[in-house]
Amino acid sequence: MTLLTDKSFDSDEILACSDCFLDHGLKLEAERCGQLMESRCPQCNSISGSKLTGGDLYGLSYSFFVNGSRIRTDYGGSVAIQFNEHHEGVGDIVFPGNLEQDAKLVAKLINIGFFLYGPRLWMVGEVEPLKSLQLPEERDEIIKRILNEFPIAKLPKDTLFYRLRVNPKQQMDPAEYDSAPEGYLGRGRLDSKDLPILYGSFDIEACLHECRVTLEQELYLSNMKIIKDMRVLDLTQRIEEQVTEFESLNMAIHMIFRAPAHSYEIIRAIALAAKRIGLDGIIYPSYYNQIHASEEIVKNLGLFGRPVQDGLVVSECVNRVRLKKVTYDYHFGPGDF
Questions:
Q1: Which residues of 161-184 are buried (b: 16+ CB within 10 A; e: fewer)?
Q2: Domain spans of the chain?
Q3: Which residues have a Cβ under 8 Å from the Cβ of 68 and sit 6 or more positions away?
Q4: What is the bridge-based pairing of β-strands 197-201 and 219-226?
Q5: pLDDT in tens, 258-303
Q6: Which of 24-28, 144-148, 332-336 has the lowest mean pLDDT?
Q7: How many Cβ atoms are within 10 Å of 153's Cβ, its own excluded?
Q8: What pTM did the predictor assign?
Q9: Of 85-94, 184-193, 221-230, where does mean pLDDT reach its minimum?
Q10: Which one of 101, 106, 134, 281 has the lowest number of neighbouring Cβ atoms within 10 Å?
Q11: In this structure, how many other beta carbons lie within 10 angstroms of the beta carbon of residue 219?
């Protein structure tokens, strides 16, 4: 694992600049990590490049080589590269093309070495409750635990949440903001042919992300209000556990909701089981938490059945939504990982 921290570099001494690097992605990442100042780089004599201290080079190494090598597995994932001072001058990775020279320069300047990282197996899905959830013959037992161990939250009367519709036929018709029609069931994360789901969120941006909106679409956002108390399973809360990550039910839920469509079968089974014990819905973490700027969990809401039709939820106000700007934040990484 990485043992150094950026606090290990408390000097303002300039060691390099972004113009020192040949790999284009690394150069661009270095421009963001460094500072523009009118001084010559001690390595390449450039005046124009963003200047980098030891701390900046540490941050660049972590952003580009470590986070940039992240690999997803079916559930979970891990970085493929790490660095520390124990591999100084050794490094067991041969980088492609110009990146090999760049990596050697970074390693020399801050006395580190890059190496291939073998993750702990729980990071890539070797979590016992998660493995059982993937097996139909073992799934029900784990779902019973989920229903017993995760909290039941009360959504009091007048609770507000948001529901986004894309290209609705009658945007002011409250029925447009109910669960999807019969012919569309079984396409979402929680709904199935046996259980319609009204999807919403307490976060407007999450609605936009979840609906994968585009510029040519007509978007309408409804402010939805619950008109009677509801009881929902809250899967955004962490339960108290005295176990390792390999045995953690928290970890299993975390990985399921960060996985794409192959996880839907499991999540739909949880929703059906929650419905059978008389709950009104599920609060669950948004798939887009993994790229959300805030560390606070973005909470989505799935209400069972057709709550608008049944008079349990009303559409209070509908507004058109126009996209003004779409901004992506990103970082680079080695091309062969």
A1: bbbbbeebeebeebebbbbbeeee
A2: 6-121, 127-321
A3: 25, 331, 332, 333, 334, 337
A4: unpaired
A5: 999 999 999 999 999 999 999 999 999 998 877 765 667 889 999 9
A6: 332-336
A7: 18
A8: 0.89
A9: 85-94
A10: 101
A11: 20
Residue with tokens 């939805």: 224
Query: Tell me, what amino acid is at 65?
Result: F
- Side chain identity, residue 150: F
Residue 263 tokens, joined: 């996880």
